[in-house]
Amino acid sequence: MAQFFQIHPANPQPRLIKRAVDIVRAGGVIAYPTDSSYALGCHIGDKEAMERIRHIRQVDKNHNFTLVCRDLSEVAQYARVSNADYRLLRANTPGPFTFILPATREVPRRLQHPKRKTIGLRIPEHVIAHALLAELNEPLMSSTLILPGDDLPLSDPEEIRARLEHEVELVIDGGFCGLDATTVVELENGIPKLLRQGKGDSSWFAA
User: Phi and psi dihedrals of 53, rounded to 5?
Assistant: First the structure.
């Protein structure tokens, strides 16, 4: 049965943040708020937890997970970022964007795009997400919380709890955070390619 933490969206309780991160480190799957919608998250090195998220979402092995990072220095650890790419990232983070970049050797092979060796990364602008990442001290492996048959991500923590009570270890209630997916942008040597329009101003990436 999932635990349920009510965490203040502006002043997260450190005790609850630490307990949430302990659950992640122990192999748990959590549902947590971001600046675009709720997401499922687990430890970057936990293959079993990743497979559980795939099962919850009913997606295949080609589904792209995202590494949710604290800042640009962490992004640079997992992706090859040119100077031109860095300028675009700096201008648009934190925010509701997922950037597809060439992966470094730090990224587990199972997380990379099978053909292109790329990885999706994002830096959310959400206090609870930042608190989790700061305590964890590494990225969260994440996927948007859209369940099979649904058109939109789940947004009500009580509904998330009801539907995933036996599928995840923790649901974090951080209030309503939106229904929009992130805007997805592929970056290569400062040349952006808009792959999906979601939340956020994409004028920076217009052709």
Answer: -65, -40
Q: Are 177 and 153 in contact (CB under 8 A)?
A: no
| Dist. CA 82–CA 2, nearest whole Å | 42
Q: How far apart are CA 81 and CA 100, in angstroms?
A: 11
Residue among 37, 28, 88 at smallest CA distance from 66: 37
- DSSP-derived secondary structure letter, 182: B
- Nearest Cα residue to 50 out of 22, 21, 20, 24: 24
Domain residue ranges of the chain, discontinuous segments joined by +: 3-205
Taking only the tens place, the pLDDT of each residue in 81-115 is 999 999 999 999 999 999 999 988 887 776 766 66
154: closest CA among 38, 16, 62, 35? Answer: 38
43 close to 141: Cβ distance less than 8 angstroms: yes
Residue 107 in tokens: 């990224």
3-205 belongs to which CATH class? alpha beta
